[in-house]
Amino acid sequence: MVSPKEVLKDYWLGKQIGKGARSRIYSVKGKGDGKPYAVKFVEVQNSDDKRIVRHLDNEYEVLSDIHEKVSEAGRRIVRPIDFQKFRQWFSLKAAYLVMEHVPGKSLATTTDYAIDSLIRIFRQVCEGLEIVHQAGYVHADLKPDNILVSKKQQVKLIDFGFAAKVGTKISGFKGTWGYVAPEQAGGLLTARTDVFNLGAAMYEAFTGEKVPSISPDDRNAGGFVPDEQINLTPPWKIDRNIPQSLSDLILECCQFDVHQRPKLKKVKTGLNDVLLHMEMSRG
Fold this sequence. Notes:
Layout lengths: L3 H4 L3 E10 L2 E8 L5 E8 L3 H23 L10 E9 L2 E10 L4 E2 L8 H20 L2 E2 L8 E3 L5 E3 L6 E2 L25 H17 L27 H4 L5 H10 L10 H18 L2
Antiparallel strand pairs: 1-2, 2-3, 3-5, 4-5, 6-8, 7-10, 8-9
Helix pairs in contact: 3-4, 3-7, 4-6, 6-7
């Protein structure tokens, strides 16, 4: 067994600030520059841990490419700093990904945002996804956990372990249950895959409920409730304070047919229109 302190020799180790799938996230400070960073650390003990190391490697490569290709990426996308593997006697024992420290909390940990604040937050999420798509990638794992919001309600997207090139044909499953689009169980990843994830994240943020999906071990080998069995309750019926136009937009994003989902630009414009109408209604 190895400890983060043993591996992270170039950093002063702080407290644990989060955890992911078989990984832990720490706050650290660089010994050379004194700057704060966040580190995602995984200790390798089995094949599942090796899979997480591959995700970290992919995340570093994708984030590096996005920031290299899109100059304004730093506004909405977490910046990668370093990725290293730690070996002992030629055996992989641990790996870590160093990222910029982003002060704030994930959207999943805060449930008391006003509706207009949530709309502004998701408008920024759209800006982040636009940057991802501009660089030629699909995030493929957008969910409230992966949306960081600062005290001033500024947004950055994190966790690009599942990210892939637009048009990637996947086998098996890629994503998180409750947010995944049907094509994430063996299909082509496109920008509209992220639109479904975005719609599912908005549905949960505004209603407190998740878009239903089922495990491939259950009655559907594809891993999803068939379209004809889905009967999503419109968000405005769950919370009467939600504008019906916003409710309709969310449901449109959650269409199981990829061709029926709106383009990201339309989603962003729709959020702007809803917010403008709410502000005008207040006088």
